[in-house]
Design brief:
The protein is an all-alpha fold and about 220 residues long. About 75% of the residues lie in helices and about 0% in strands. The chain has six helices and no strands. Helix 1 packs antiparallel against helix 2 (about 20-70) and helix 3 packs antiparallel against helix 4 (about 120-150). The longest helix is centred in the N-terminal third of the chain and has 52 residues, at about 20-70. The termini are far apart.
């Protein structure tokens, strides 16, 4: 295009005086230089935009990779709720099994009222031992339930443990001081065990705030 314009200008300038010809040729040369510089600038700008777009695409891909490495809070709290159900579901039969095991063992032992155990009637000792077996089942049940739950979530355990640490930090930061509790103002879920969703977590925060306000009112009255 620039060459064609140059020749057209040259042909038109043949009929002009010598000074006019030089002016025309200088103007045409300036135009060709300007057009060439503008083309070079546009080429450089187009080349510079390519790495910017690629870097922007890399930046947009990085959060998605980070999201894959982090467990969403809603999903984590739902998993935590299911874990608590597993522990409860196993605790009930474990407690019953311990109670019936104590009855089957201590109930078949011969009791001699004339021979006390630690100066206590054997019937009371055996009854207390049976209740102790039930209590042992109540303590062991959550451990068994948690172990079974961990086996069913082996692929997500690393992400769950990471969220457990963050969740514990949130609980420690926002929970109330237990020394301010009273008979009419007990501590609301000190360890956050009942939290199973984002709504439950917000409700837990509101309960902590109510406790603080009520405790401050009692302290001001005292």
């Amino acid at each position: 295009m620039a060459t064609l314009a140059y020749y057209q200008t040259r042909s038109c300038a043949r009929g002009l005086p010598h000074t006019s010809r030089s002016q025309v040729f200088s103007v045409s040369r300036a135009r060709t230089q300007v057009s060439g510089s503008s083309r070079a600038k546009s080429t450089k700008a187009a080349r510079s935009e390519v790495p910017k777009q690629s870097s922007a695409s890399k930046g947009s891909a990085q959060p998605s990779q980070a999201d894959k490495e982090n467990l969403p809070w809603q999903e984590y709290l739902a998993i935590r709720k299911r874990k608590r159900r597993w522990e409860t579901a196993v605790t009930i039969p474990a407690t019953a099994a311990g109670f019936f095991a104590g009855i089957s063992y201590f109930g078949n032992l011969e009791m001699d009222p004339t021979k006390p155990i630690f100066n206590i009637d054997p019937m009371w000792v055996y009854g207390g031992a049976t209740l102790g077996c039930a209590g042992l089942g109540y303590l062991v049940g959550p451990i068994i339930g948690s172990s079974i739950w961990r086996l069913t979530h082996r692929r997500l355990m690393r992400l769950i443990e990471q969220r457990d640490k963050e969740f514990h930090q949130h609980i420690v930061k926002n929970r109330v001081d237990p020394t301010a509790q009273s008979a009419t103002n007990p501590v609301p879920d000190y360890y956050g065990e009942k939290i199973g969703s984002l709504h439950g977590y917000r409700q837990w925060l509101r309960d902590q705030s109510k406790f603080r306000k009520k405790a401050a009112g009692f302290l001001s009255e005292d």
